[in-house]
Amino acid sequence: MTTLKHDDPEVWNAIQEEAKRQQETIDLIASENICSLAVQEAQGSLMTNKYAEGYVNKRWYAGCANVDTVEHLAVQRAKQIFGAEHANVQPNAGSQANMAVCFAVLKPGDRVLGMDLSHGGHLTHGFKKNFSGMMYEISHYGVKRETGCIDYDELRNIALAFKPKLIIAGASAYPRIIDFKKFRAVADEVGAYFMADIAHIAGLIAAGVHPSPVPFADFVTTTTHKTLRGPRGGLILCKSKYAKQIDAMVFPGIQGGPFMHSIAAKAVAFKEAMSEEFKKCQQQTVKNAQAMANEFVKKGYDIVSGGTDNHLFLVDLRNKNITGKEAQILLETVNIVLNRNTVPYDERGANEPSGIRIGTPTIASRGMDEKDSVKIAECIDKILSRPHNDQAKRDVKNIVKDLCAAYPLHESGACPSTK
Ligand code: PLP
């Protein structure tokens, strides 16, 4: 980065500070990860210079031979990883992937059934200030109060009464296996399209650690930067019969020229996702989340649904005399970064919710294991149970420092698996 350092020291300096922050922080944000240097190199390449409206071999611009090569690779690899009939790798983010599917099959005012945001759903699944909530009539299903797991009977009953045109499965804060087959059955019963948004669990699905929705869903959308460990971006998978509709809605429907540098980086990440090391890392991600959740249970914390099957879990702090926001702020002072989150049936709002969401993709990508995860859970407990104890803060800061030093990020972010 010598050119950047010379030409724009302010931006260069901020990037150096961010590299230091990432190196010295235990990152437990469930939607984040560390992509490889190879992904970063492709993302930072001069492919960003190229306009390429259209698709492979069907561009509106000249000079597209090389970007065609990378988009073709990205599409083929995405289809291979997930066993999908068709892939569109152009969505700039997960939200655009969801928007493209909605616009492709729905008219304004149509009915959509998605998971309640406060039970773990995503903004694009019907939040009133999101395009989805503004344009469509929305109904929500959620989780059972007693189990914290999706209430499939309620889902079916709501679908029978509401008659949605689209049913969305998928979540941003749901710790259990999602039964996509059950969603398909409900969609068939009411004649709805079925979209599975696997943004959070795509890496786990690619590695066979979570069942795939591809055999059951009409459309599967995802981000590429969470467990999938690629560059920031989106991806749509669908049956061949919807290919034309989806492609036309991504471009020219809702986007212009695709981000070819991101598509190149997606291709690299998809290649990595086929490796044995990636599979091991995804397995470790789940083991870490389970080890950490078990430790919290042992220490008397209330974990939504009692544990986790995936890369994240939710700690309900209502019996701990501390809010999720207070916990988030406090933990950041000792270099443990996570986010506050509502828990199902939360009496508090989204800004001062009662819970925290803990995810393990980043620590697994750094090489940390169950032993380290238990250590991190102990650190969090030490801080949350003694919020005003300066000695506890000093002790935890030292443990975090040692852990981060033991698992270096290597320059600006290579994972151990891609060294
Ligand atoms: N879908 C789910 C389930 C998500 O969790 C997210 C992001 O957190 C998105 C979609 C949207 O992704 P993006 O932030 O890339 O628009």
SSE map:
Elements lengths: L1 H6 L1 H15 L2 E2 L9 H7 L10 E2 L2 E2 L5 H18 L3 E3 L5 H12 L5 E5 L15 H5 L1 E5 L10 H11 L3 E4 L10 H11 L2 E5 L4 H5 L12 E5 L10 E5 L4 H12 L5 H14 L2 H23 L3 E2 L8 E5 L7 H9 L3 E2 L1 E3 L13 E5 L1 H6 L3 H16 L4 H17 L3 H4 L6
Parallel strand pairs: 1-13, 5-6, 5-7, 7-8, 8-9
Antiparallel strand pairs: 2-3, 4-10, 9-10, 11-12, 12-15, 14-15
Helix pairs in contact: 3-11, 4-11, 5-10, 7-8, 12-15, 15-16
The chain binds pyridoxal-5'-phosphate.
Pyridoxal-5'-phosphate binds next to helix 5.
Can you characterise this structure?
By secondary structure, this protein is α/β, with parallel strands linked by helices. It has two domains: 40-274, 3-Layer(aba) Sandwich (Aspartate Aminotransferase, domain 2), CATH 3.40.640; 277-406, Aspartate Aminotransferase, domain 1 (Alpha-Beta Complex). Helices cover 46% and strands 13% of the residues. It contains 17 helices and 15 strands. It has helices at 2-7, 9-23, 37-43, 65-82, 94-105, 131-135, 152-162, 180-190, 202-206, 243-254, 260-273, 276-298, 324-332, 361-366, 370-385, 390-406, 410-413, and strands at 26-27, 54-55, 58-59, 86-88, 111-115, 137-141, 166-169, 193-197, 219-223, 234-238, 302-303, 312-316, 336-337, 339-341, 355-359. The protein has a seven-stranded mixed beta sheet with strand order 4-10-9-8-7-5-6, with helices on both faces. Helix 4 packs parallel to helix 11 (260-273) and helix 15 packs antiparallel against helix 16 (390-406). The longest helix has 23 residues, at 276-298. Residues 411-419 have low confidence and may be disordered. Bound molecules: pyridoxal-5'-phosphate (PLP). Residues 31, 93-95, 98, 122, 124, 170-172, 197, 199-200, 223, 234 line the site of pyridoxal-5'-phosphate. Its EC number is 2.1.2.1. Pfam families: SHMT. (6S)-5,6,7,8-tetrahydrofolate binds at residues 117, 121-123. The modification N6-(pyridoxal phosphate)lysine is found at residue 226. Pathway: Amino-acid biosynthesis; glycine biosynthesis; glycine from L-serine: step 1/1; One-carbon metabolism; tetrahydrofolate interconversion.
